[in-house]
From TrEMBL:
<protein>
    <submittedName>
        <fullName>Hydroxypyruvate reductase</fullName>
        <ecNumber>1.1.1.81</ecNumber>
    </submittedName>
</protein>
<dbReference type="InterPro" id="IPR006139">
    <property type="entry name" value="D-isomer_2_OHA_DH_cat_dom"/>
</dbReference>
<keyword id="KW-0520">NAD</keyword>
<keyword id="KW-0670">Pyruvate</keyword>
<dbReference type="GO" id="GO:0016618">
    <property type="term" value="F:hydroxypyruvate reductase [NAD(P)H] activity"/>
</dbReference>
<dbReference type="Pfam" id="PF00389">
    <property type="entry name" value="2-Hacid_dh"/>
</dbReference>
<dbReference type="Pfam" id="PF02826">
    <property type="entry name" value="2-Hacid_dh_C"/>
</dbReference>
<keyword id="KW-0560">Oxidoreductase</keyword>
<dbReference type="GO" id="GO:0008652">
    <property type="term" value="P:amino acid biosynthetic process"/>
</dbReference>
<feature type="domain" description="D-isomer specific 2-hydroxyacid dehydrogenase catalytic">
    <location>
        <begin position="17"/>
        <end position="313"/>
    </location>
</feature>
<comment type="similarity">
    <text>Belongs to the D-isomer specific 2-hydroxyacid dehydrogenase family.</text>
</comment>
<keyword id="KW-0028">Amino-acid biosynthesis</keyword>
<dbReference type="InterPro" id="IPR036291">
    <property type="entry name" value="NAD(P)-bd_dom_sf"/>
</dbReference>
<dbReference type="GO" id="GO:0051287">
    <property type="term" value="F:NAD binding"/>
</dbReference>
<dbReference type="InterPro" id="IPR050857">
    <property type="entry name" value="D-2-hydroxyacid_DH"/>
</dbReference>
<dbReference type="InterPro" id="IPR029752">
    <property type="entry name" value="D-isomer_DH_CS1"/>
</dbReference>
<feature type="domain" description="D-isomer specific 2-hydroxyacid dehydrogenase NAD-binding">
    <location>
        <begin position="113"/>
        <end position="282"/>
    </location>
</feature>
Length: 314
């Protein structure tokens, strides 16, 4: 009987159907809690002699591939595969698969939720009510007529653009891999996007090109009233530069679902009054969790059966 270890945290919480898929396929499933997803040694120990692993943000690199020679497939419970060393996987002949599109609605809805929360200063007013202070102490903003800049115009970015259009916002996007204009949106250079947008939402994958793409130079182009929203990956931003921009009120605020190191409990960004944060939960809805789980399970089963996964990365 082939064995698969499940490390993806949200899978373990509500994965009735995907779990049934795996068990019906005759796979021995072990659900384990990963206490330190960035530590490859621990990840290796948890995988042990299993042939398959279903991961969330658990780091899978050379250490894991070397320590787990039985491993045949790494199935990502989600989209971004930046936590998996793809070159190393190829070197060790391990298949990597992911679940594109399964969480794009949830993440786009989350990004837009954060935009609305920032625009209407919800955390500030909630604190105020809890402190028994009633009435408006400051003004929010309407979205109508404002400009949103979307970095990375893939599945999630395009959903965010649709929502923005429904709010009568102007939509700018930057994506070097899209050559044609996608009407009614406007493709622009990254610098123009940072200069002109009132809200900037990041939706690019983490790659060598995008790592710390949001640096001091780009941040310095932003309007003083503009907000940055990141539901993609923390590493897209140089966090030190962002900290200074926010601390010196050179930009209005930021909403961050993701950080360079997670959990970010010691991250100074969390001490700033103009930052709101969530614990990497943009895809955590019942609907997306089920879709991610089913595709991730199906990918694993297919590779175990000697077939192509639905979405092979390498
Ligand atoms: N917080 C969370 O819980 C979640 C975070 N995510 C993150 O969001 C990212 C985007 O997801 P999704 O929209 O589904 O992915 P997609 O692949 O559909 O979209 C990403 C887009 O960004 C483009 N891109 C690549 N490089 C750059 C660059 N240098 N600058 C700008 N754009 C670039 C891609 O082009 P091309 O396709 O040609 O490479 C693609 O069009 C994921 O990679 C993941 O890291 C995703 C889900 C949940
Ligand atoms: O799908 C992804 O890349 C995620 O980050 C899911 O949490």
């Amino acid at each position: 009987m082939k064995k698969a270890v499940i490390l993806a945290r949200s899978f373990a919480r509500s994965a009735k159907d995907p779990l049934r898929l795996l068990e019906t396929a005759g796979i021995q499933v072990e659900i384990k809690k990963d206490p330190d997803p960035e530590n490859e040694k621990i990840v290796s120990e948890l995988i042990g002699d299993a042939e398959g692993v279903l991961v969330g943000m658990d780091r899978v690199g050379e250490v894991v591939f070397t320590n787990c020679p039985n491993l045949k497939v790494v199935s990502k419970h989600g989209v971004g595969v930046d936590n998996i060393d793809l070159q190393s996987a190829q070197k060790h002949s391990v298949v990597v698969a992911n679940a594109p599109g399964t969480n794009s609605i949830s993440v786009a809805e989350m990004a837009f939720t954060l935009i609305l929360i920032l625009a209407r200063k919800i955390p500030h007013f909630f604190e105020q009510v809890k402190n028994k202070e009633w009435g408006a102490t400051s003004f929010g903003l309407e979205l109508e007529g404002k400009t949103i800049g979307i970095v990375g115009f893939g599945r999630i970015g395009k959903n965010v653009a649709q929502y923005a259009q429904a709010f009568a916002m102007k939509v700018l996007y930057y994506d070097p891999f899209i050559t044609d204009e996608i009407s009614p949106y406007k493709k622009v250079e990254l610098e123009i996007l940072f200069k002109d947008a009132d809200f900037i939402s990041l939706h690019a994958p983490l790659t060598d090109e995008t790592r710390e793409m949001v640096n001091d130079k780009l941040l310095s182009l932003m309007k003083k009233e503009a907000f940055l929203i990141n539901t993609a990956r923390g590493e897209l931003i140089n966090e030190e530069a962002l900290y200074l921009s926010l601390k010196e009120n050179r930009i209005a605020g930021a909403a961050l679902d993701v950080f360079t190191h997670e959990p970010p409990f010691d991250n100074p960004l969390l001490s700033l009054p103009n930052v709101i944060a969530t614990p990497h939960i943009s895809s955590h809805t019942r609907e997306a969790n089920l879709k991610m789980g089913n595709i991730a399970a199906e990918n694993l089963i297919r590779v175990f059966n000697g077939e192509e996964p639905l979405y092979r990365v390498v």
